[in-house]
Amino acid sequence: MVTKRETPDQTNRAGTAPTASDSGGRRPRLLLLDGHSMAFRAFFALPVENFGTSTGQSTNAIYGFASMLVKLLREEEPTHVAVAWDLSGPTFRDEEYEGYKGGRSETPPEFPAQVPLTQDLMRLIGVANLSAPGYEADDVIATLAHQGGEAGMEVLIASGDRDAFQLVTGDCTVLYPGRSLSDLKRMTPEAVEDKYGVPPERYRDLAALVGEKADNLPGVPGVGPKTAAKWITKFGSLDELVAHADELTGKAGQNFRDHLDDVLRNMRLNLLANDVELETGVGDLTLGEADRAGVDALFDNLEFASNLRERLYGVINVDEAAAQGESGAAEGFEVDLTVPGTGGLTAWLAEHAAPEALTTAAPAGLALEATWGRGTGRVDALAISVPSGAAAAVDPTALDAADTEALAAFLADPDRPKVVHEYKGALLALGAHGWDLAGTRCDTALAAYLAQPGQRRFDLPDLVRRYLGRELEEESTGQTQLTLDVEGSDEGPQHALAVRAAATRDLAAVLVAELDKRGGSQLLTDLELPLVDVLAKMERAGIAADLPYLEELQAEFAAAARQAEEQAHEVVKKDGVEAFNLGSPKQLQKVLFEDLGLPRTKKIKTGYTTDASALAWLATQTDHELPALLLRHRDQTKLRTTVEGLIKTVADDGRIHTTFNQTVAATGRLSSTDPNLQNIPVRTDVGRRIRRAFVVGEGYQELMTADYSQIELRIMAHLSGEQALIDAFNSGYDFHAQMAAQVFGIGVEEVDGEARSKIKAMSYGLAYGLSAYGLSQQLDIQPDEARRLMDDYFAEFGGVRDYLQAVVEQARRDGYTETTLGRRRYLPDLTSDNRQRREMAERMALNAPIQGSAADIIKVAMLKVDAALSASDLASRVLLQVHDELVVEVAPGEREEVEKLVTHEMGSAYDLRVPLAVSVGGGPNWHDAAH
């Protein structure tokens, strides 16, 4: 099934120029994008530090480029689209002028690798990428614009290069970047003339006189755009101006005569070639069908959120059949719906959902119209679909006593197998009504995550589309409902919910079969599904918060931020600088680099960066107090924001109920949201104070923390079998000091803090797939020094190097990596022709087995600890999991037994070649319980 935008078919397979008649009466519209220009625009508009994958691949340029393209496709509705890219290597302009584009700032290292990935995305969505050896992207655009104009097409050019203004006509408009990423100014003939004082056909003349700094083309000294426009207007053209050069008076006139050769050279180089030989003509530039599976895979690898994906799918032509590997036929779900009246549900369940009617191979599908979060929820409607096709939909709050009892018995019966989408949400929502849910054999969201952990979305409509080739579409009916996309269907919300239950049941069968093939069934049944019950209990319990203390912290951090701001204003006042907005990068640049004349930082599109690392660098390069005050202001503001967020989430019971997510991290690690309790700052003393706000609750004695020591490195030792690494763990010395001593060839007692820190960063970096460049950035050393450090490390621990190389090669052969418990991550890009995608997959292959095994082991430990607490009839309970740490609320009199139990169960979660070391601490709050 192919979903298309509402635009006429513009395809002209012969590649000849399209006409209005080809367009069903609508005039064809050609959209041309200057690839590098727009990608650079996106790169500098979005902070690179906020856009990147867990493996270190920067993504801000790709994300911004895709966002701009979505906006252009939606607002301009082009019939034909292409992106022109510059090629490396000289052009005819370089051959004429050796200094062409010389002196440009060095390209940020995070940018180049994003270009091929952006080009890959264009290919996947059906947009042509075009280049020509010896020419620039501008020349390709000029050629296509010329062809489009001759064909009677309306032409739009998205470019930040002003040379494109010479192409502007009544039928060709340049979309020129404004202040923000989404701001594109329409440079029509009138707009060009209003801004520069000359019509578009004379803009090239003006540029030749003024010069172009970005291209290293010097203009006439003292001649700006206004003077140039006045001369051109007076004489009509540059040719005429040259012919009357002797008539120009004053210093500017003399400068023109002195630099005439430069002007004429600029004029030649500014000319955009409109006759470049291209393999593709404008008639072949219709927006093709997108490879949805390919786009999904790329976006998953880039770790993009689903909102950009959905916006993109809204403006391109999506080949659903290709994405699903299906014929594209949207078959319906078998639903024989009953909406039982009072007393009717009991009879329906007895007839259709008795224990003998359901098996693991033929379970009931369960769907809820519900909300949940922060440890609770609400059910508004519920539907059950059984293998026979019978379905029932009810409002649980409108049932009589007998039906309520029958429904509760069905839900809680472990012998009546069920499948559900988002099992934990169902547990929380049903639990709020006093109902248990047992017998769940499959959570379709979890199953899909185990099958394809690199995906970023596991909503039911998308999974049904991917795996069943059918459509479930969201409708706005006051609440979010799902309806079957069947022509002529006018069923109500009860039928929609029953369809969802049937879809969940059918989807579960396909996913379970997929997991059987991929070896993930045991992970689902023995690890992830049982863990849902544990996480739901943790979310219901929450963790007690000291609200008055949080409010004190909020006021303290706010006051500290204000004080830093006041001190900053006082400091610059001594230099004659007026008060400024500390949160404005533009004002910061002016104060730091113009008013105060401090050393300039890394150059960016809008000037010089004022990010945290730049301010920290400035603080070391100058005695001026301002950089340190700015850092303090940012730190205190961030801490205040963190505390404000925590205060807002304190529930009526005085506890904070976070939400744990199992399907976010591709490695299997849990994440925490609303609020994120895995991100409470702990690296600074003031940050650690926030942990003091998490306290033992009423009726309990203390909080206990238990965490694994260096679990990733222990797993690396286990997987690599490197004996020297294993011996270092068993030596009895501080592990990192022992490692440093071996690498640097010194005694353990001679290892200082710097040497220990370097080896610690190296060890963990290898476990996370860190490159030499990444290590250099982390340690603030040169890449060559980082590479030497890695070489020395591998010389001592060769088994680690061999293991890391073998991991990638094995994954390339198998197509996936695997953890100690068999969790797979499929990486098809390991054999990609695109070097950036291949290297990104290689980094994933390096860190997935180690991080994934650590995630598996802590999950096993959670199950073992929870089961042991229950079996021992202890009242103590697990409240939080933070990466490798568990936080337990200890009941009075149970401390000694709980510590022994937790240490044993965590330590025996998996049998490694080195022991799983567990550290335990206790106290009245989370901070004091640290060890």
From TrEMBL:
Residue ranges, compositional bias (Polar residues): 9-22
SUPFAM superfamilies named in the record: 5' to 3' exonuclease, C-terminal subdomain, DNA/RNA polymerases, PIN domain-like, Ribonuclease H-like
Keywords linked to the UniProt accession: DNA damage, DNA repair, DNA replication, DNA-binding, DNA-directed DNA polymerase, Exonuclease, Hydrolase, Nuclease, Nucleotidyltransferase, Transferase
Region (Disordered): 1-28
Domain 3'-5' exonuclease residue range list: 336-516
Domain DNA-directed DNA polymerase family A palm: 687-894
InterPro entries per the UniProt record, alphabetical: 3'-5'_exonuclease_dom, 5-3_exonucl_a-hlix_arch_N, 5-3_exonuclease, 5-3_exonuclease_C_sf, DNA-dir_DNA_pol_A_palm_dom, DNA/RNA_pol_sf, DNA_polI_exonuclease, DNA_polI_H3TH
GO molecular function: DNA-directed DNA polymerase activity
Source organism superkingdom: Bacteria
CDD domains, sorted: DNA_pol_A_pol_I_C, DNA_polA_I_Bacillus_like_exo, H3TH_53EXO, PIN_53EXO
SMART domains, per the entry: 35EXOc, 53EXOc, HhH2, POLAc
Record's keyword annotation contains Nucleotide-binding: no
Residues annotated as domain 5'-3' exonuclease: 26-288
The protein's Enzyme Commission number: 2.7.7.7
Record field: catalytic activity: DNA(n) + a 2'-deoxyribonucleoside 5'-triphosphate = DNA(n+1) + diphosphate
Similarity section: Belongs to the DNA polymerase type-A family.
The protein's name in its UniProt record: DNA polymerase I
Originating species: Nocardiopsis coralli
